[in-house]
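Today's session is about reading a structure prediction critically. Students often jump straight to the picture, but the first step is always the sequence itself: look for stretches that repeat, for charged clusters, for runs of hydrophobic residues. Only then move on to the predicted structure, which in these notes is written as discrete structure tokens rather than atom positions. Here is the chain we will use throughout the hour.
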Amino acid sequence: MTKAFEEVFRGTVTEAAAHFDEPRGEFTLVLEGAAADVPKASIEDVRNELFHLRDTGAKSRDAVRRVAEATGRPHREVYRLWLEITQRG
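Below is the predicted structure for this chain, in token form.
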């Protein structure tokens, strides 16, 4: 069953307030919780984990994603370290 003013909106609270200047009908809010802060691991810890994953045959995409998520380091930084490690041979 369709409602006359049914609408799906995704955005921040500020964006929603600006978008719905004349709200009508019912509202359902779905809120996402804040991500847990992951303390950043040292560069040496990142390198060690990347060496381990390389030696076990992990693919670059999987290794970089896993290490970036686990260590809190930016994906770009972990990928740069991965390239340094894999180019050494």
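Discussion point for the tutorial: The chain has four helices and no strands.
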